[in-house]
Amino acid sequence: MVRKTKAEAAATREALLDAAEEMFIQHGVARTSLDQIARHAGMTRGAVYWHFKNKADLFHAMLQRVRLPFQDLVEALDDPELVKKPLEAIRLACISGFEHLERPRYRRVHAILIHHCEVFGDIDPLAMQNEMAEESCGALRDYFHCAARLGHLRDDIPAELAAQLLQSMLGGLFHDWLRNYERFSIYEEGSRLVKTQLALMQAPPAE
Amino acid sequence: MVRKTKAEAAATREALLDAAEEMFIQHGVARTSLDQIARHAGMTRGAVYWHFKNKADLFHAMLQRVRLPFQDLVEALDDPELVKKPLEAIRLACISGFEHLERPRYRRVHAILIHHCEVFGDIDPLAMQNEMAEESCGALRDYFHCAARLGHLRDDIPAELAAQLLQSMLGGLFHDWLRNYERFSIYEEGSRLVKTQLALMQAPPAE
DNA sequence: AGGCATCCATACGCTTTTGCATGTAAAACG
DNA sequence: CGTTTTACATGCAAAAGCGTATGGATGCCT
Predict the structure, then answer these.
(1) pTM of the entire structure?
(2) SUPFAM superfamilies, from UniProt (chains A, B) (predicted)?
(3) Is the CB of B45 under 7 A from strand C?
(4) How far apart are CA A123 and CA A127, in angstroms?
């Protein structure tokens, strides 16, 4: 086996990225060498340097195999019917996010970004986390403001505060789950938590 | 300057640990060499290898300069008067934790553990985070159960669920703040969030 | 005051990893 | 069908970082 067809070459590229994900999770990004990745995929560093410029390039390619979470989330929110029920829209968006996160590759890459890589070349995982948090909190704020205008939110809870509460809760749940995903399903736990939290912040039924 | 007095030697040891903290935060644990730490403290690696066995030993020493957060938290809860008001006890314990976290060394070490180190020798930061989470959630559960027995908790919110909600919220806030502590004060933000969350879960006044 | 232990700098060998250069056999293409 | 390009494997030089051995000047003890 020396020269592969184009399809086989693409397959080895994916295999290298798969191997990188596994090694990064097991030993951390900084402590895994390109040789370890290549061996774990059944190849040598030659294959790595053929498909990728260097370790940072491989890392980028690994990230680009998954979409950032809020690209999915905002898609889940484009139903115009949901604007009338913003709290329900938030709940469904969260559930949609949970579903996406449970896909193994999705989960692995986020676990690497958040728990198994400190800083790396031109990519700063903390900056990426900040971007994700900003995006998330911004979307939540919009929907909570909408809910407040419609009177769906308790009047003693400002929209900003509601957004911060839910944002922190989601972030904490996210981190806890990524630390040990086998302990519970983020879909089930998250659905319960979001449901009760939204119920708590919902305006009491008019009497 | 060659031989230092004992006090000076102890000072250089502290200076090395300070330098390590700063370099770890700036460049991550894995990507900072002992030489960088020594130079940043105005010394050479000789000083490092005199005071510490190796990088892992230095890391341990750095950790041992701060106490783990829940050692402080449980101390804040030993007032027997607070058992009668468990929700208030939880609030005060959180506030006490926030105060401790705002001390620079405290904050730096936790930021390193959570955001700037992947795995390192015999210490696994994820395991430490899990321990902290377990300890925190356990204490919260106890107090919420106490609150439930006293009727201080809404009867549609089980104690377990209340503990999980607050635990996730605290964790998310903690991570967000460690990512960029200059944006807000965890003491102020945390106090507000905990206060409103506890108010939401509190049993409505009897009528 | 003298000897010893301390505190740190310097120097050396070693391992690991990286980046590139080269080899090569088959696939792709005209 | 011949040539070129592809898709790797292999080998090599260089750098970085670690651990230790050694040196050396001074504080500390008797």
Answers:
(1) 0.91
(2) Homeodomain-like, Tetracyclin repressor-like, C-terminal domain
(3) yes
(4) 8
Stretch 27-66 of chain B: residues touching chain A, C-beta under 8 Å:
27-31
Side chain identity, residue A147: A
- Quick one: which residue's CA is nearest to D26's C1'? B3
- Each residue of B53-93: pLDDT tens digit? 999 999 999 999 987 666 666 666 677 777 788 999 999 98
Residue B82 tokens read as 């607070």
By the 8 A CB rule, do B120 and B29 touch? yes
Spatial distance between the Cα atoms of B200 and A166, rounded to a whole number of angstroms: 13
Q: Which of chain A's residues have a Cβ under 8 Å away from the Cβ of B133?
A: 176, 179
pLDDT in tens, A138-187: 889 999 999 999 999 999 999 999 999 999 999 999 999 999 999 999 99
Max Cα-Cα span within chain A:
77
What is the helix (H) or strand (E) element at residue B80, kind and residue range? none
Identity of the residue numbered A34: L
| B207: pLDDT strictly greater than 60 | no
